[in-house]
Amino acid sequence: MANRTKRTPTKKEKFLKSLSTGVPNVSKACKAAAIGRTLAYEWKKEDAEFSEEWDNAYQNAVDNLEETAWRRAMRQKDPSDTLLIFLLKGYRKERFAEKTQVEHMGKIEIDDAKVMLGELLGGAEV
């Protein structure tokens, strides 16, 4: 492919810088580096070092978002109860996450299930 964008240190640096700061958004990072998303994912797949740097940059941005959420949740004036709830649910799932219970009401007819499975298998005996 003659019109293929070349991977340059500048494009790589712009992509990783954009991905690691602010919002961890691949499309935004691609735009900052003037490359397409498909090409970025190809580079990630082909280059283990770039892939690791990508993952680290992404985690750095998520860490920054988390830090901002904590600050906003805990600020003295106008704290965010919603952010605090989400943070607690994330860090203390066993205590703060919604609890669900699944209960099966009824019985399972094994013989009927065997017949249906046999029919699916082309009349084989189960």
Helix and strand arrangement:
Elements: H1 9-20, H2 26-33, H3 37-46, H4 48-74, H5 81-91, H6 93-96, H7 110-120
Helix pairs in contact: 1-2, 1-4, 3-4, 4-5
Describe this entry's structure for a reader.
With 126 residues, the protein is an all-alpha fold. The protein has a domain at 9-96. The protein is built from seven helices and no strands. The chain has helices at 9-20, 26-33, 37-46, 48-74, 81-91, 93-96, 110-120. α1 (9-20) packs antiparallel against α2 (26-33).
Strand percentage: under 5%
The dominant shape is: flat
Span between termini: 55 Å
Main beta sheet strand tally, sense and closure = none
Low-confidence stretches: none
Number of helices, counting only DSSP H or I runs of 4 residues or more: 7
* Class by alpha and beta content: mainly alpha
Helix content: 55-70%
Q: Could you spell the SSE succession in H and E letters? A: HHHHHHH
DSSP E strands, number: 0
Cα-atom radius of gyration: 25 Å
Mean pLDDT: 88
Please name the defining characteristics of this protein.
126 residues, mainly alpha, 7 helices, 0% strand
